[in-house]
Amino acid sequence: MKKFLLLLGICSVSSAYAQGGMLIIQNFTTNYDFHGNLYANNNVGGGCYPLVVSKVPDPIVVPAGATAKYENYRDQYSSSGFPVSTWNVYLGAGSPASPRPWNHPSLMPGGVISNNTKWSMSKFQMYHAGTSVPETYFNGDIGGTALPCNTAPDVVNTAWGSAKWFTITAGTDVYTYLVIQ
Q1: Coil vs helix vs strand at 71
Q2: What's the pLDDT at 150?
Q3: H or E element: which one contains 2?
Q4: Is-contact 136 114, C-beta < 8 A?
Q5: Which residues pair with 157 in a beta bridge?
Q6: Phi, psi of 111 (to 5 degrees)
Q7: Separation CA 143–CA 167 (nearest Å)
Q8: In 10 A of CB 98, how many CB atoms?
Q9: DSSP H/E element including 177
Q10: Are 153 and 56 in contact (CB under 8 A)?
Q11: Is residue 17's pLDDT more than 80?
């Protein structure tokens, strides 16, 4: 009975942590396209690992006025207008990147990587809409400020625009937003 209760407890904690819910990037700007990479990691233990970083495409591009939604590593591929086909997985400090396709078993809901990571940050650069010309001063690292794994601020303010990272929890549903204005 003790083993059953222990297993039940571990499963409930894992499912509650499973990738931390949906990530939504809302690019409300009319002048700039978002170009960035997404990061997810374990902020609870394990020295911030595993760490998952979007790889293909590099970078993700969300045009001016568009919204991107990432339910999880797998389902985003068919449901997002801006899907990631390959994720780099780092299992520990100094470990090499292990490229994994969106449908790799460890990245599926319930998979070991998915169960032990949550959206944590983005490194981004804004580009003039529809061009390959960067806006030099509208960029940065942004994310949830869960130390020690992430030291990026949750707000980036510039004269050209601003970005905010925040999380809303409604019951058991968790929504992480990156809003660019």
Answers
A1: coil
A2: 84
A3: helix 2-17
A4: no
A5: 162
A6: -75, 160
A7: 10
A8: 15
A9: strand 173-180
A10: no
A11: no
